[in-house]
Amino acid sequence: GAVVSQHPSRVICKSGTSVKIECRSLDFQATTMFWYRQFPKKSLMLMATSNEGSKATYEQGVEKDKFLINHASLTLSTLTVTSAHPEDSSFYICSAISVDTQYFGPGTRLTVL
Amino acid sequence: GENVEQHPSTLSVQEGDSAVIKCTYSDSASNYFPWYKQELGKGPQLIIDIRSNVGEKKDQRIAVTLNKTAKHFSLHITETQPEDSAVYFCAARRLDDMRFGAGTRLTVKP
Predict the structure, then answer these.
(1) Is residue A62 over pLDDT 80?
(2) Distances in Å between the alpha carbon of B90 and those of A2, A80, A112, B8, B32?
(3) Which of B9, B42, B89 to mutate against chain A (most A CBs within 10 Å)?
(4) With 90 as the cut, is the pLDDT of residue B6 above it?
(5) Over 80: is that where the pLDDT of B96 sits?
(6) Strands (E), A3-89
(7) Which one, of B18, B34, B77, lies nearest residue A104 by Cα?
């Protein structure tokens, strides 16, 4: 199947700093990518849909100024958590569709101290 | 919008037994139903999927059945092995909107 990569896999940052997470489709082009957040032992919560060349669509309750999404190319979407706080600590997973099938990245574990 | 319910939340089976996880969905327009396996600390991996024009699909020890009338679909794992232990998520998709079940933690005891 198609491969989606994420970088970094783990990041620890201080409260108040910003963190950027990259999501890449390695062997296909993705006009649409998705960003999910997952709390321990919980299901995946869709945060936003990232569209290449246009603004992301955020789910209700997700702060677009806090979670900045940029989808500058057909193979790269980035999620920037701005002014991170401990409550932003979570597992962030991106996803992309290839040939009508949705594939997930390996996830990024963010810990905010 | 779509609402996906998944049962059971935890399932423990003996190695070699079968495991069945069931999901129901609410939006009759949903037409794609994937199943994902998630191991600890990793992203979900697609293990099998089914589209609304098919009632059953099988891939070695894994099978999925779909009942469109009743709006439910199930994952069947036969001859379970300890490496099948993971969290399994079902999902239902309509256009670009995919909703997930709450997950089932499967434990296969050797």
Answers:
(1) yes
(2) 19, 28, 30, 12, 11
(3) B42
(4) yes
(5) no
(6) 4-7, 10-13, 19-25, 32-38, 44-51, 57-58, 67-73, 76-81
(7) B34
Residues of A in contact with B103 (CB under 8 A): 41-43
> For residue A44, which residues of chain B lie inside 8 Å, CB to CB?
44, 89, 100
What distance in Å separates the CA atoms of residue B43 and residue B30, rounded to the nearest whole number?
Answer: 24
The per-residue pLDDT for range B16-37, each reduced to its tens digit, is: 999 999 999 999 999 999 999 9
pLDDT tens digit sequence for A81-93: 999 999 999 999 9
